[in-house]
Design brief:
With 735 residues, the protein is an alpha+beta fold. Among the domains are: 111 residues, Serine Threonine Protein Phosphatase 5, Tetratricopeptide repeat; 190 residues, no CATH class. It is 49% helix and 9% strand. The protein contains 29 helices and 16 strands. A 4-stranded mixed sheet has the order 1-2-14-11. A hairpin with a 5-residue loop joins strand 7 and strand 8. Helix 2 runs parallel beside helix 4, helix 10 runs antiparallel to helix 11 and helix 13 runs antiparallel to helix 14. The structure holds S-adenosylmethionine. S-adenosylmethionine binds next to strand 2, helix 24 and strand 11. S-adenosylmethionine (SAM) binds next to strand 2, helix 24 and strand 11.
Length: 735
Amino acid sequence: MIFLCFFQTHNMTETSKDTPKSKETDKVIKQLSAKINKEPKNAGHFFKRAQQYSKKEDYEKCFNDAKHALDLDESLVDAAVLGGEAATKCGKFQGAHSIFSIGLKQNKKDENLIKGLKKLQRAIVDSYDTEDTTEQGYNAVDLCTQSPYPGDDQLLNLEKEILDRRHDIREVSRLPKKEIDPDLRQRAAQAAMAGHKSMIAGKFTDALESFTYAVDIETDNIILRRLRAEVFFINQDPVSAMKDLMHIQKPERTADAWKLGGKLLMEFKLPVLAEFWLRKASELAKGKDEETAICFQKVRAHRLYDPLTKDMPVTVDFTMYGKAVFAVKDIKAGDIVFSDAPIVTTPYIADDKKQVVKGCNHCGTSLMTARDYFQGKLDNMDATAKEVVENNWPVTKPVVCSECKLVTYCSNICKNTAWERHHELLCPSRSKATKKLYDIDQNKGWGTDVDGTWKELWSGHFSAYILAKIWANIAADVKLWMKQDGKDVPEMMHWAKAKAPFRKFIAFGVGSAANDMPYILKIMNDIFRDCGDGIKMDITEQELNGRYYQAACNLQIYSDPVTPYHKFYDNLSNFNPEDPKALSILKYLDDKIPSASFSGMFPLHACLNHSCMNNVEVSDGEVNGVPGVSVRAKTDIKEGEELTTTYIDTTMPRRLRRAWMYKSFNFWCQCPRCQFEGDDAYSCSNCKKRAGDTPFKGCGKCHRAWYCSSDCQKINWKEGHKLVCGVAHSKADYS
Ligand SMILES: C[S@@+](CC[C@H](N)C(=O)[O-])C[C@H]1O[C@@H](n2cnc3c(N)ncnc32)[C@H](O)[C@@H]1O
């Protein structure tokens, strides 16, 4: 079970020196390319071309070829070494790590691979040291829109009615101008001054009295109304506060008045109206008021997620890092906090393994056969064991798409639902473009480009199908909404409704996927240009980039927690332990259970932020009988505490962890471990003083913090190191 972590795309500069030697290299590359076009499954050609690219110092191409050679033939350890070193040189650290790992599977002791891994570690650390490490992360509110959701206009009217009926609050028309005696006006002004002073002094009862005196005289004074509303708000009288604000006519309301109204409406639990007021406040403040922007997103988080978390011990709120999950009651270590089902999912093929087991392409249910599990052993098994397998291995009845005959499902229900949701549009039999997408996916991103060259067309660390499925789902919903409204052509509202479920997922990253992968942009447009029923989707560069980063920030890898193997094993437990049949099969059982992995986007799970001192862990789970994820408490969690998972292997030292996080997710981790551990023995983890030639002494317990003096050690211990020293780390596998 892994979070899909990846390094963001970087544009590499190509080096090519125009020397006779390099001309010769170019010639060899040309010859090899021709051979590759003829025999695209020949690993040797790719390896040889990778060697040529390495000579040219074109490390990106060298890595791509070496990786592909290894995909075709895992035993090519030299390709792992070459590719890993090339990837390290061009900064593709994630790629380097995974290609070295493939090699190590073949030969754990290969010296060149081990050397390569050490160089990789050094390069990651160096890049962290030389990168612009100004630790200003992103601003989460800037990533979130304030645009209304479809149907909000009707909800707005409904909430206005609730405000009126339940709290007797409504917009008040402008009061007629009153002639006020100058003496009285003078007294009102004095009372207002006194009210203001009391407010500053924190004497809110006195302030209220003074403002009320003044408002009674100057009933139409909008400044007095707003000030009194603020005092009512502080004195926890939201109804009176709101009534005062309603006396201020809309065009005269300041950003502060709209903001206060938004906060009051949050208390009345009228989120759409609250959003309306806060949006107005944001517009008037020209987006510069951070508090308003955060309030808006808090309202939105609660309105979108409260229904999802209704029976759960958690809530979703908005913080400086965007959405975050908080405990609403104490949770015990080991408890499952919540489970979540994916909104979109697709098979995941890791770089280092072939997907030997099939899973339902729609729901992810494992379709593992006895052969998938026992492989060759099945043929050589003794007769008794074979009989046990035949009688106890659950029968799965995979159903294949009747059009393409390529995509498998666990049942006709899944096949039909998949057809309606996405497969009708994406079925490889539908068009050249859909077949091409299928082939690129099967070839882990490789295919023939428009100019006839065989190259990596998709370099995402997840399947391009995720994006295609998002768009296919949107197209399917647009059709539904359009038909439901009896229209022949979709309206803006239909599009907005169809896109709404995907608005929950944050998208953040640098670089342009559309620029890096123009071929993908082209085939996606070829596919979605005609979605049937007159519906067209224009996949612009911005659309591709947005969806790409949504997937990159939120995807989670998971697999069916209860496979046919588990059911088989359960069946065995019904045997008498002395039964020779049961004993006959034991020797064939293996700890390694092959899985059908999927990567999916999970609405609630995707709100979990990262911490290197995570208090929850994500595991394979089941939701309504189909595979999903479960979030389990790793430690006791107190009410009000944020739940954090980890996106990386937290056993790594701080410098490496932070470098991985920055490269993969573009933020500097500020978790307690990152704050109260150090980088190395040459910098004091407390005061940051640099050591000379003699390294500082480290914390004797965790060896992850170093100090120039015992005073610094004591301060750091008190301030937070004691919280992080010696906590159990999550050795999440990361890809
Ligand atoms: C799976 S989402 C987590 C929820 C996210 N905060 C949101 O608003 O949707 C992952 C993204 O959250 C942000 N994030 C997660 N953990 C963070 C942390 N410790 N510090 C800063 N940003 C974090 C990053 O933008 C990351 O790409």
